[in-house]
TrEMBL record:
Any one biological process term the GO annotation gives: tRNA threonylcarbamoyladenosine modification
Lineage, uppermost ranks: Eukaryota, Fungi, Dikarya, Ascomycota, Saccharomycotina
Protein name as it appears in the record: EKC/KEOPS complex subunit CGI121
UniProt keyword Nucleus, yes or no: yes
A Pfam family reported for this protein in Swiss-Prot or TrEMBL: CGI-121
Keyword vocabulary terms for this entry: Nucleus, tRNA processing
Coiled-coil regions, chain positions: none
Superkingdom, taxonomy of origin: Eukaryota
Organism of derivation: Saccharomyces pastorianus (Lager yeast)
GO CC, alphabetical: cytosol; EKC/KEOPS complex; nucleus
Keyword tRNA processing on entry: yes
Length: 130
């Protein structure tokens, strides 16, 4: 495998209810990198952590990371420069890791996968502990 295999973040969409949630986590990840405040070892794990309402790394991975029984996932790729990126190589790398059908990333498709009950459960725990 190439070094591209280390540049994917895999997220379970059950707790993702909108594109803005992912975009916010990506933005927060890039801010943490820019100010040298990353709490994890790489951009992928930092992005998963940034999705979490808490700062507990293992809790973030348990809730937002993919599991052995995951049937859907959101795949994120961090890279330095799109002009240097070979999109075909990236697609081949991803297809060697993940078997499935690629669908467009939009709110309509996300609405098919998120679990509102689970989202309420996760958010209510944070509100009670705060």
């Amino acid at each position: 495998m190439s070094d591209l295999s280390t540049s994917f973040a895999f997220v379970d969409p059950k707790l993702i209810c909108s594109q803005e949630q992912i975009y916010s986590a990506i933005y927060k990840t890039l801010v943490e990198v820019n100010y040298n405040r990353m709490r994890t070892r790489n951009l992928n794990s930092e992005c998963v952590l940034c999705l979490s309402p808490t700062s507990n790394i293992s809790d973030a991975f348990q809730k937002f990371g993919i599991k052995d029984d995951s049937t859907e996932l959101i795949c994120l790729n961090f890279h330095n420069n799109t002009s240097d990126l070979d999109k075909e190589q990236l697609a081949n790398e991803l297809s060697s890791i993940v078997t499935g059908v690629e669908i467009e990333f939009n709110d309509k498709n996300l609405s098919r996968f998120y679990d509102e009950t689970l989202i309420r459960k996760v958010c209510s725990k944070v509100i009670h502990y705060a």
